[in-house]
Description:
Radius of gyration: 31 Å
Number of helices: 20
Mean pLDDT: 84
Number of strands: 14
Number of domains: 3
Largest sheet: 5 strands, parallel
Structural class: alpha/beta
CATH class of the largest domain: Alpha Beta
CATH topology of the largest domain: Rossmann fold
Shape: flat
CATH architecture of the largest domain: 3-Layer(aba) Sandwich
Helix content: 40-55%
Oligomer: single chain
Strand content: 5-15%
Distance between the termini: 60 Å
Amino acid sequence: MFNILVVEDQKNMRESLVIAFKRAGYHVDSVENGEKAVKLQKDHFYDLVMVDLKMEDMDGLEVLSHVKDINPSTEVVVMTAFGTIDSAIQAMRKGAYDYVTKPFQLSEILSVTERALEKKRLLDKVNNLQREIKEKYQFEGVIGNSPVMMRVLNILMELTNSESTVLITGESGTGKELVARAIHNNSRRNNKPFVVVNCGALPESLQESELFGHVMGSFTGAVKDKKGIFLEAQGGTLFLDEIGEVSLSSQVKLLRFLQNGEIRRVGDTKPVFLDVRIIVATNKDLDEATKNGSFRKDLFYRLNVIRIHLPPLMERKEDIPVLTNHFLNVYSNKLGKKQPEISGDAMALLLNYAWPGNVRELENVIERAVTLVNGNKITGDDLALESIQSTDTINVMTEMGGIRAALAQQERKTIIEFLRRCAGNRKQAASNLGISTTTLWRKMKEYQIIPKTSYNTEET
């Protein structure tokens, strides 16, 4: 239901408008002067303000200015018996949706109101979609507070105004496509196509045709023209994953595009010039590939303009609690569940697991746990990790006489480490650990961790 505020000093007119709006299904408040209107606007949200132009204490244009300052999305319709072109222009310049002159039919006011609220509804929808897109894509999945990930995020911020070719390296599951998408969505091309191609999934015999297109009759089976993936990405970004799997013949064509911005479809004699940004990724060592001849050196140099390396999750364990909390939030929202806490023993297991599948595997583990957990806390048993103990943890188990004692020791050390990194800030440490401040305080009491601003990880 839309909320409307009527600001009118004439009682009969004010009451007539209130009755008409209520009959039309709107929620309505009314005041007799501008000062009350501004005060009410500060404490309540209104979709539309219907304001009289001529009032003694504060005229309608002043009210309009205050309303727009408080909430720019509120639509305003100005009413007056003194209709002049000058006052109409002033009202529109200050952001009024429309301007109506008295006397008027209530049906006219309702029609203007309906149009104003429809405009607001559409604008709100657009703004919400833009906000969702921004929240969803801006550096989505590029999460972490480890030094290496902070460097990656700094590079991504520097790339927002860049058109350079980017080479992303790293093991499978480290988030290479997410980085590529973040680069695209924070560039001037963000409203153009982002096309993803897994080069390893393209048969070598069809790579040139799939990537660059072909003309009818250029080879057996070419029964019609094919525009190709490059043309689909026109104006936007083409992300070539597993670039190390591209055939040498396709490498030649890719090099020509990077040099001249042109492609040539299979069987075509005319070049096609395109505006496409290239981002590539690989889990192979392209330096080694250039040495053994499977990858062209000149192409490698063209691709290796900006290089971003994503390390395996095992090399940035301090990101695991942050990523865990992120995935807990994502999948709780998807499933319509209250976000469960992650227990200390579960976090200890996550920190000591080898993560051969990297961030992708962690995401899958958390999704499964959120889906199947009974209650509001995920324990180690809910994680279903097959191999969870590191050598250090196994040694601790032996020394302390069992798995529960080992996990408690690991949990205590983890809490102290995160408190140390956060300079004793319990709220920040709890957030990074993916637990509530209440849980953190209880654990500190349980493990006799004394609150202070400096923590020693060797503390016993």
